[in-house]
């Protein structure tokens, strides 16, 4: 009886050890497969989320296929490539662009973003990369020929844009009949064409784009309201990203990438060095 008990104990022990070995082998195999399939952290591409106004041609807008295109889109993609990161474009409400940036929902504001002293208090800026100006666009047959003719006239512009600052900085703003703010330039120009406003204060690069698209519709006043420059807005405290981005933009000037993109959209190299 004692011998039978001993043999039974030894048989149970052998089964237990065999089961443990199989379990360890299976576990080791699973771990090996997991390590093999796992992508190293260093190989993962960092993503930079870029806030844009997708109705701001030719800087950033949707084409006939509803794809986001434009000078700033190509420029940002090239910069991201130079930085070794992936660019993701996020259309935002331009009225709340700084809130989007500071909250961390986007990493950059990059779409015809004018550098102003007021904005410098809220965000970090790259060096200016493009010259611009705020100008007045009217219908081709309009009797408005000079800034002084805006007296008694209803003027439209994009809300929370530098267009409002430019108009308010000019004495004529006290004489206009009313200032109507729109969510974007497309809506402002639509109301201009229907006669609900008689003039639109708008970025020069945007005005030139729409004048080229609709040659017999608009005219541009010779007097501009104010010169300005575009820059890229970076979240305060993220100096590391700002430095990396500026280095990429500088490199793009040196290797000809910036000039190539500018010539594609403007027919000449307008990028500042």
TrEMBL record:
InterPro entries: Iontro_rcpt_C, Solute-binding_3/MltF_N. This is Amino acid ABC transporter substrate-binding protein. Residues 1-18 form the signal peptide. Residues 47-269 form the Solute-binding protein family 3/N-terminal domain. SUPFAM superfamilies: Periplasmic binding protein-like II. It comes from the Bacteria. Pfam families: SBP_bac_3. Residues 47-268 form the Ionotropic glutamate receptor C-terminal domain. Keywords: Lipoprotein, Palmitate, Signal. PROSITE patterns: PROKAR_LIPOPROTEIN. The lineage of its organism: Bacteria, Bacillati, Bacillota, Bacilli, Bacillales.
């Amino acid at each position: 009886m004692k011998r039978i008990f001993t043999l039974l104990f030894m048989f149970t022990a052998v089964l237990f050890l065999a089961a443990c070995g199989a379990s360890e082998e299976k576990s080791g195999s699973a771990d090996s497969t997991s390590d093999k399939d796992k992508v190293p952290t260093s190989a993962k591409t960092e993503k930079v989320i870029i806030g844009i106004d997708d109705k701001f041609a030719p800087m950033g807008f949707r084409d006939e296929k509803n794809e986001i295109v434009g000078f700033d889109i190509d420029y940002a993609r090239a910069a991201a490539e130079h930085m070794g990161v992936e660019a993701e474009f996020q259309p935002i409400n331009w009225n709340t662009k700084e809130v989007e940036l500071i909250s961390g929902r986007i990493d950059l504001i990059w779409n015809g973003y004018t550098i102003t002293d007021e904005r410098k208090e809220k965000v970090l800026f790259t060096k200016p990369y493009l010259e611009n100006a705020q100008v007045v666009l009217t219908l081709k047959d309009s009797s408005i020929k000079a800034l002084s003719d805006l007296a008694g006239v209803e003027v439209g512009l994009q809300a929370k844009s530098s267009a409002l600052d430019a108009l308010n900085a000019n004495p004529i703003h006290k004489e206009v009949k009313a200032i109507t703010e729109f969510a974007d330039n497309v809506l402002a120009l639509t109301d201009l064409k229907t006669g609900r406003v008689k003039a639109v204060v708008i970025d020069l690069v945007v005005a030139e784009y729409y004048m080229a698209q609709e040659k017999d519709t608009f005219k541009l006043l010779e007097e501009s309201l104010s010169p300005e420059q575009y820059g890229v807005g970076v979240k305060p405290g993220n100096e590391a990203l700002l430095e990396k981005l500026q280095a990429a933009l500088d490199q793009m000037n040196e290797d000809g990438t910036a000039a190539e993109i500018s010539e594609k959209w403007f027919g000449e190299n307008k990028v500042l060095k």
